[in-house]
Amino acid sequence: MTTVKDLPREDYFLSGHTACPGCGGAMVVREVMKVLGPNTVVYMPASCLLIFSDMYPYNAFKVPSLQILFETSAIAAAGVKRALKRLGKDDTTVVAFAGDGGTADIGMQALSGAAERNEDILYVCYDNEAYMNTGIQRSGTTPFGAWTTTTPLGSTSEGQGKNEFKKDVPRILMAHDVPYVATASLGFPADFLKKVDKAKAKKGFRYLHVLAPCPVGWRAESDSTVDLAKLAVETGIFTLLEYEDGVLTLNREPRFTPVREYLKLQGRFKHLSEGQIASIERWVKDKWERDRALAKALGPKPKVPVAIVR
Questions:
Q1: Using CB atoms within 10 A as the burial measure, which of 46, 111, 201, 290 is most buried?
Q2: What is the CATH number of the domain that holds 68?
Q3: pLDDT at 2
Q4: Distance between CA atoms of 12 and 219, rounded to whole angstroms?
């Protein structure tokens, strides 16, 4: 298993790209590529990643990479994998890196189709919780109350940030009963690398959902990315889980640090009222009750002794 100490020195996502300082997406891709290694093909849709890593004539990937349309990540990656199999190169990992907009919203139809067909690809969503590349617009994974350019602040209840809670994409993928679904955070690198290792080794459809703070869109300091990713887990806002071959495991019980400790570090939440913060606290509590109930229902089943009839 790859640990932080075991990570190879060689990078397959190179420095010199043009990501913003503290970009969580760039950190996610760099660490994933260290584990996947040179025998990898990358697909990426329209996204921050495409812009800062692959603008002609420069490319930050040390492996083949391509892009077509915003909504086609999963199906394009699946097509590449099928072509490689026909060429006898079944050992090549094909990975799609997409943001939350290209995953939870625009790319959902292709993602669901690829999962339903159990396509042999790895799909990594780096979740920065908005359409950051095109101007910080609301996405399906934008949290309740967050300011974006399409959930502006105003004098009415409809104008105080996003009114809906975050879409639970990992649970949607679990409903497809694929071989592997996991969430990860930059704040817990050992857990993150372990899950990339597992996803690389498995066959069939694998999905990783990684929280990737965006200092620009979150209105946070550029050196706070890892701290924010860790606090999201410790407050209970972001759950670390693993769904493997039909068994669900919650990887970490959070400390349940007060959610305001996480919110106060981000300018996108500075307008929140006490009532809105209380709503987020209730949502965290309810989410964890659901998560625990689901983990109990889908957890390892005790072995039942088989009676031998003589």
A1: 111
A2: 3.40.50.970
A3: 72
A4: 30
Tokens at 182, concatenated? 């996991």
**Which domain range does residue 254 map to?**
24-298
From residue 279, give the alpha-carbon distance in Å to each of 152, 232, 254, 289: 19, 16, 19, 15
Among residues 244, 249, 233, 239, which one has the least CA distance to residue 169? 239
The number of folded domains in the chain is 1
Where do we find the tokens 């349940």? 256
Residue 17 maps to a domain: no
Residue 6 lies in a domain: no
Best CA proximity match to 103, nearest among 213, 207, 19:
207
pLDDT tens readout for residues 267-309? 999 999 999 999 999 999 999 999 999 999 998 876 656 556 5
Q: How far apart are CA 148 and CA 129, in angstroms?
A: 10
For range 44-73, the mean pLDDT: 92
The length of the chain in residues reads 310
Task: Decide if 285 contacts 238 (C-beta within 8 A).
Answer: no
What is the bridge-based pairing of β-strands 93-99 and 122-127? parallel
**140 lies in some domain:** yes
Q: What is the CA radius of gyration of the chain?
A: 20
Give CA–CA dist 307/155, Å, rounded.
69
Q: Quote the DSSP letter at residue 151.
A: B
Would you say residue 238 has pLDDT above 70?
Answer: yes
For the ranges 55-64, 129-138, 192-201, 256-265, which has the lowest average pLDDT?
A: 55-64
Helices (H), 121-263: 169-174, 189-201, 215-218, 225-234, 259-263
Number of H helices, E strands in the chain: 10, 8
